[in-house]
Amino acid sequence: MPYVNVRPPLRRAGLAAGVAVVMMASAGPATAAPAETGNVQKAMEELAGVPGVVGVVGGAYVDGRPVGLGSAGSRLLEGRGGRIPANARFRIWSQTKQMVATVVLQLVEEGRLGVDDKLGDLLPAVVEQDLVTRADEITVRQMLRHTSGIPDWYSGKPNPDGSEGDPSFDVFDFTTHYRPLDLVRWSRGRPRTGEPGEKWSYSNTNHTLLGLIIERSTGHDLATELRTRLFDPLGMTKSYLMVKPPDGVKGPHGHGYHPDAGGGLRDVDRFNASLAGAGAGGVVSTTHDVSAFNRAFTQGKLLPPELQRVLTDRLPNDPQPSSESRGSCGDDFYITGGSAPGSIAMTFYSADGRRQLAMSFTLSVKPSAVELDVSKAVETVFCPSPSAATPHPSARVRG
């Protein structure tokens, strides 16, 4: 799923999809968690007032303990449907990528594959069907780090004004079942973004392929591997992988909307599960569950250090802004997230992995058209003193 850009003062000012953000984050100084936390509900109410936001849920956690849940706006457009339950499930979009990458590297640790194994050897179908050029040169490491040069199946053409256009597919096709290799095939006619290993270029195709590698290496479907390796051990009891229509978000939850060609708004709650690319963005979770994964990953509980560095070491052409400013309460926060038609999901976390603030926004505009002052929410929750109430004016997020 695509990028959402973040500017300072939040450290590592880039909200990207899943592993792309984690890959760019360097270790920051750990500081003690504050003795108090602010009002999550107040932060959510302020965010719900942003034009284009239908509803928002958020949850804050310190050392795994919930310290605040909040929900504002409404489940449906124009105030209908009541408020979204604060513990509701939502699509986490490209935060899925970090989970898939973690499973891949657990398989490396087990000796089932290697980070320098070639795509063509691990997935012979991409060679036999001519789906990926230079598949005999592209490695697992390069796909994990978005340096494979494989073009993105998801991205459409930008608008004439340079803003992000609609995806390459029909956003309102809720029923056609696309196999992961169908999505990979869409990328085949697009130009490569570079030589294998040459430079960073974000592509959903990488993680669609990595999901297939997991399935071929284990003999199990990706949903099973995510459940048995991550969801069950970490107590992520409400998380699951959506794979194909008519899969959707279980239980009461917020609905997102997307403008059609005529400018009318259409409910995209049934966004085609197979168009999330499974390994690229198919996980449904909650603020509790996504924070539990984030905490375990950040604190090194899921991978040995040498394999975790495959994801966390920065690349020479790291596209993140260079600012390393801190929030006004003196701590470093990183951010990971993703977006797609109808919603944005993001998780803020402290450098030591002790604190998380996870949020999901449902929208009535394209993600690229909404502006969210998320740093103020982080400061409201984790820096509740009056002096910390006003964020730096550039601390804005645009979808």
Automatic annotation (TrEMBL):
The keyword Signal applies. Gene3D superfamilies: DD-peptidase/beta-lactamase superfamily. It holds the Pfam family Beta-lactamase. SUPFAM superfamilies: beta-lactamase/transpeptidase-like. GO terms for molecular function: carboxypeptidase activity. The keyword Nuclease does not apply. It comes from the Bacteria. Residues 313-332 are annotated as: Disordered. Residues 1-32 form the signal peptide. Residues 42-359 form the Beta-lactamase-related domain. Keywords: Carboxypeptidase, Hydrolase, Protease, Signal. This is D-alanyl-D-alanine carboxypeptidase.
